[in-house]
Amino acid sequence: MKFKTKITIRFLSIGIFSLGLFVAVSLLFNARQLETTTLKMGDELAKLSAHVLSGYFDTRKAEISTYANMPLFRTMNWAKIGPFLKAEEARHGGTYEKMLLGLADLPANYYITTDGNPHFDGLLSFDNSSPTARLKSIAQRDYWQYTAGNNTEEEARVYVSNPMVSYFTGVRQTMVAATILSEDNTDVLGMVSGSIAWAELDRVINGIKNRILHGFGEGAKMFLVSQNGTYVYHYDEKKAIHLLTDKEGRPILNEIGEKTTVVNKITEDPLEEIVAAGKKLLAGHAGHVSYIESQSSETMDLFFAPVHAAGYGLGIVVPEQLVLQPLQRFYLMLAVIAFISLALIGIFSYFSAKKATEPLNVISKKVSEISAGNWKARIDYREEDELGVVAHSFNRMVLQLEKQAETVAESHQRLLTILDGLDAIVYVADMDTYETLFINKYVRDNFGDITGKICWQSLQIGQDGPCPFCTNDKLLTPSGEAAPTYKWEFQNTLNGCWYHIIDRAVKWVDGRMVRLEIATDITRSKKVEDDLRQAHKMEAIGTLAGGIAHDFNNILAAILGYADMAMDDIPVHSPAKYQIEQVLKAGNRAKELVKHILSFSRKEAQDRSPVQIQRLVKEVLNLLRSTIPTTIEIKQNIDSQCGNILANPNQIHQVLMNLCTNAAQSMDEKGGVLEIRLISSQLSTDDLATEPNLKPGHYVQLSVKDSGIGIDQKYLDKIFDPYFTTKEVGKGSGMGLAVVIGIVKGHDGMITVDSKPGVGTTFNVYFPKIEEHIQEVIDETEPLPTGTEKILVVDDEESMVDMTKQRVERLGYQVTAKTSSMEALELFNSQPDAFDLVITDQTMPGLTGEKLAEKLMEIRSNIPIIICTGYSSKMDGEKANYIGVSGFIMKPVDKRELAKKIRQVLDREDSAG
Fold it and tell me: Which residue, 488, 720, 743, is CA-closest to 592?
């Protein structure tokens, strides 16, 4: 059997089965569904009718509310309200039968009609005393109680009343009333109301019946009930509210002369279904009930819905046969459709089978081509049927897949470009096998192509298993999910560089969790941190050195001063003279040591002058030869034209001595070669990368090279630290290189070191070159200057006061000494002209030398003052000159310097006077 025949039979079988199933389901289900739909339509028509009525009442309520909120009514100006109301009644053309106005500040117990008295310009009023007042108090009316019952509203409350019958005309009507509030909305002034005659309401109801209820046919009927269940309107006129009349049509009066009204309520209907529906309706619910009419025994369907604007309820009563008419029409239509469908199924099955087989081969062929990777293959099928849609969708799908493949390739390339552009290590490794799954260009350039290799074997050195510092255990939660990013720093064991590392567990393309690591080289930053730490350390040690220097200088000043005087007093032939000479030599060496300490701490102002450094180097080499073992050969390469530097000769001498001594000690055991070289050098910005404060240019390079044991790499960053030494106890204090670097930096220079263990060490020192010429220093051989002036000496240490007093007196001066700055001030204040000069220490309790000088100059402005100090961070020569002090001396001071300074200050003051 041909494929087309098979399809035809299958289509036909499916069609017949579907049709039979459709008919059966329709008979069993759609009939009920149609019935439900018809009932639902009844509910919707009832709601629509109620909505139309609600709109009508909303319009009436809006009109009355507009009156109530008019300023004219709020002012209660009778002269203007009357004509206005008459005009409004005329304009409405009888829409409102009456316009009634009540005032809250009157008793408001009765109202009168338009033909009663009293009235003002046609306006209606309230008056208890009127003899014609016959109706019950309107305060008992539901619309008055509702509207006037709350005087705190911002706007007047609007209410639609229960139905009533006019006492005078017998016309059935409904009142719409609204409260008139004072201008500040706090008091009720009155009430404005308008009546809706049922003739007007009948017009609206007839419109609903003609336009909405015609869908049910002529048998559909309608009723309307008020808030209390009274029939406002009913298709049976006897049930609607009306006056009871006699045979002649005259109203029947009751025993008190009032007209008798007939009231029917839905809640009093004899049928339980109607009563139940009424209760739901009055509660504001919509719904549907079925009941059997008592007179005709006909089944009726009642659809009801609330009229929200008035609080009323609307009901539509339809005979059940009208409701079921659509179902009967459905059965007939279903039979016709079944016959036509059966015929069409046969025709459709044949042609569909024929049509369906034509493009299948084409589709099958193209699918095979695309499966083989030919993204350009397309199904050329132009028919606009299902297969055409399939072909079109298929072609579009292939196009989208092609674009997605291109997008994925572009995204992949873009990601690789970004990762390869990072100046950082980026790699991915399996967390179980440690296999490297991905690397970026930075890794390839620095570590080679390690893809597929074990990370701890490729990126580290000396590991015989996974790195003990591996962060895999920190990247996963106990449940196996990715933990927060882990950041850490580490020095790589392979290249020695420091890295800031960010590790995170990510899900790989195959679903397994892998470690992504991004490591940025921070070696340079680490070096900057170390340099900053070193600078802080040097500053702290410098502060300590300054304190030590102050106390030590005071001690040395006394030692050297007394020893100097002793040398003058001891005869030449005395054995003690030699001993005192040794004391002076030792003291002077100590004095130079303190200077070196201050130089290291960079606290002492360095007296620098143009120096021919090659002469200093030669002097040091001559001295070294006699102190260095003969097993050490000294070589020198000194350029006599290397240039001059601005320096302190003693400090340059100290630098070279320390470097050469260290070099000689490194060659103690086996001997070796000590080479000193002095040349001119040109330094660029790159050469000074580690010294940003220095400027590129011409420098004098002093190199000290030895062939000793060398320095281990791990110590190179520490050799300039104070007290750091690798020597045995007794062979070094650890201050040598610390003093050297202090002096070099104090001369705006730079020092570098290059060393290899077992090969030797080279220190290179660079000093800025200057173009100034060196002037020869002429030695002074003149005798010590003396004098006879009166001098006041102040120092808090008795030994210093005594020593200074004796030294100055030996120069011929008259000296008064004080160990208290306060006592010295009192003495000077009592005899301001008794002294020609004051010599004072700087650091003293009570008043410092600076403060004492200020007090003395306040008493006598021209008094010469010399301040002496072992060390003070707050006082130097420049500061002394700034505050007006005549001279400044650093302790310890020799007798020639002291004599010259005293005479210099006194002679300057004499010439100024």
Answer: 743
Distance, in Å, from the CA atom of 322 to the CA atom of 579, rounded to the nearest integer, reads 149
Residue 531 and residue 538: Cα distance in Å, rounded?
10
Q: What is the pLDDT of residue 124?
A: 37
Tens digit of pLDDT for each residue in 31-81?
566 667 777 878 888 888 889 888 888 888 888 888 778 887 777 666 676
Distances in whole angstroms, Cα of residue 451 to Cα of each of 430, 437, 742: 11, 6, 51
Question: What is the chain's length?
Answer: 913
Find where tokens 């006492």 sit: 167
Helix (H) / strand (E) containing 704? strand 697-706
Asked if 472 and 504 count as a contact pair (C-beta separation under 8 A), the reply is no
Higher-confidence position of 210 and 441: 441
- Positive or negative CA dihedral for 447, 448, 451, 454? negative
Inform me whether the pLDDT recorded for 112 exceeds 50.
Answer: no
**Strand 312-319 relative to strand 498-507, pairing:** unpaired
Q: Which two tokens stand for residue 807?
A: 């030294």
Of 559 and 383, the one with more pLDDT: 559
DSSP string computed for 343-392: HHHHHHHHHHHHHHHTTHHHHHHHHHHHHTT-TT--------SHHHHHHH
Q: Residue 135 has what pLDDT?
A: 39
Name the residue with higher pLDDT: 3 or 18. Answer: 18
Q: In DSSP terms, which residues pair with 815 in a beta bridge? A: 791
Residue type, 220: A
- For 799, the token pair is 């030994």
Annotate 380-425 with DSSP letters as a single string: -----SHHHHHHHHHHHHHHHHHHHHHHHHHHHHHHHHHHHHSSSE
Name the strands in the sheet holding 513-521, side by side, starting at the edge strand that comes first in the sequence.
Answer: 436-439, 425-430, 513-521, 498-507, 486-491
Instruction: Quote the distance between the C-alpha of residue 341 and its chain's center.
Output: 69
Contact 129, 110 (CB under 8 A): no
CA–CA gap between residue 656 and residue 664 (Å, rounded): 12
Tokens of 430: 């399996």
Distance CA 735, CA 724 (A): 7
Tell me, what's the pLDDT at 104?
37
Q: What element of type H or E holds 576?
A: helix 575-601
Q: Is 286 helix (H, G, I), strand (E, B) or coil?
A: coil
Q: Report yes or no: 704 and 710 within 8 Å, Cβ to Cβ.
A: no
Q: In whole angstroms, how large is the CA radius of gyration of the chain?
A: 61
Q: What is the pLDDT of residues 504-546, one digit of tens each?
A: 999 898 889 999 999 998 888 877 777 677 667 666 666 676 6
The amino acid that residue 742 corresponds to is G
Residue 31: both structure tokens together: 């009939």
Q: Are 261 and 243 in contact (CB under 8 A)?
A: yes
Q: Is 5 exposed, middle or buried (0-12, 13-18, 19+ CB in 10 A)?
A: exposed
C-alpha 514: how far from chain center: 31
Please tell me whether residue 30 adopts helix, strand or coil conformation. helix
Pairing of strands 790-794, 814-818: parallel
